[in-house]
Design brief:
Layout: E1 9-10, E2 13-18, H1 24-33, E3 37-40, H2 42-50, E4 56-57, H3 58-62, H4 77-84, H5 90-98, E5 106-110, H6 114-119, H7 124-129, H8 134-144, E6 150-152, H9 158-167, E7 171-172, H10 174-202, E8 216-221, E9 231-235, E10 247-250, H11 256-269, E11 278-283, E12 286-292, H12 296-306, H13 308-311, E13 314-318, E14 321-322, H14 324-330, E15 335-340, E16 342-343, H15 345-352, E17 358-361, E18 373-378, E19 381-386, E20 398-399, H16 407-420, E21 428-431, E22 436-440, H17 446-463, E23 475-478, H18 485-494, E24 498-501, H19 508-518, E25 521-524
Parallel strand pairs: 2-3, 2-5, 3-4, 5-6, 13-15, 14-16, 15-17, 23-24, 24-25
Antiparallel strand pairs: 1-7, 8-9, 10-17, 11-12, 11-13, 18-19, 20-25, 21-22, 21-23
Helix pairs in contact: 4-8, 8-10, 12-14, 14-15, 17-18, 18-19
Length: 532
Amino acid sequence: MTEHHSPIRPVRRALLSVSDKTGLIDFGKALAERGVQLVSTGGTAKALRDAGLEVADVSDITQFPEMMDGRVKTLHPGVHGGLLYVRGNATHEEAANKHNIVPIDLLAVNLYPFEETIAKGADYDTSIENIDIGGPAMIRAAAKNHDGVAVVVDASDYGAVLADMDANDNKTSFKLRQRLAAKAYARTAAYDAAISNWFANEIEDDAPTYRAVAGTLAQTLRYGENPHQNAAFYTTGDNRPGVATATQLQGKELSYNNLNDTDAAFECVAEFGTEQPAVAIIKHANPCGVALGGSLAEAYEKALRCDPVSAFGGIIALNGTLDGATAEKISGIFTEVIIAPDADDAAREIIAKKKNLRLLITGGLPDPEAKGFTAKTVAGGMLVQSRDAGRVMPADLKVVTKRAPSEQEMSDLLFAFRVAKHVKSNAIIYAKDNATVGIGAGQMSRVDSSRIAARKSEDAAREAGLTEALAKGSVVASDAFFPFADGLLSAAEAGATAVIQPGGSIRDDEVIAAADEAGLAMVLTGMRHFRH
């Protein structure tokens, strides 16, 4: 950290101009009690006066009235000179005296609620009107001159400012001003990022010249993927139901891996909407069981049967209200997190007995077809892509084998391919009766994924006391094309009767011929679902 020795600075005059008035009155009173002159604008000034405080208008400093619906009020040398002039610099102080510029020692500003406005789906003109101009300009000016000015952009820092003043005879320390300045620049950066990304979306620019990604700290985490890594959870303001918007009803704090896996689980189960109860069980960001059922309890039993060993210590996502019967079944094994749109009283009572089990309520499901983007850092840069919102429908499928899938096979094929979208590539999924019965994930060879999935189905059968592997009579989905016939033949050996895959290999004809020879039905989707 760079060493910097700067004196404590007196706070004689404070400019308060806030959209969010949380804590404003108490802060204003505390400053006034410490002999600080209050200067304010518009609604902020009115709120302070209504509380009985003496407040000067910004126009008293600028000698210029507010105008244009308040768009022009603080963009004036009287304000920015008071924020920017370097204390102790003879030339600056001479200019300030010559032009009657008074020092502003503390600035408290929070911005027009642009992020909240667009999150509510406001129209174009309303969104534009909620872009703050004067606020960011003042914040950046005060933050640059933090050697002499304290800038507050977050009401949660009011207490720290007052405590620092009390410890320093109504003056602020450089350490506090420096911390506040760093936070101020981060805030304006996040604000501008929200605006620029909204504009990019409005004009449908998928690759803007400058791409900013910003977030607000939601939680400092104990560590990252491993104990030697530092980590924190930031929310972006996106109104998408999930881990960032959920209410945690009980259980200990979520970890980095919990958050990552819970997000994967909820996005997976959301693929199936709300037409039929669905459950996804996730371990290390990969599904180890996904199923549809006549009830959530039935769907859970079918999902668990796929890989009950891996499900231990997993994450469970549901697409409907968690009920008592399902909660009773889930509580039978060790589970880290349950996430669902809601939970009834009976379920909450049952889960409450598991003190460490986290229960998250989201109020809804994310739309798997909604637009959005994802970002991943690489050395020296960032990869940004649109969210995988692709969805294959029956009309998109092309039957390429002599035998067409039966009605049940077609239902299972579509189900399996939706699951494949959420399995790390190379991905192979066996499914039967709208439930996974074997999953192979993340292998360097597609044939290895196929073999692993088949072995998983054998292991699951043994756990269930069955003599025949669960994959017998199933269908199989591949997230990408089969480059050779060996992966397909491996699936046939495991007992699959029908196949769904994107196609597009130079050996498609060879793979199709192998399917015909094995008596398999096969459909091509024309859409790939790599997930790395």
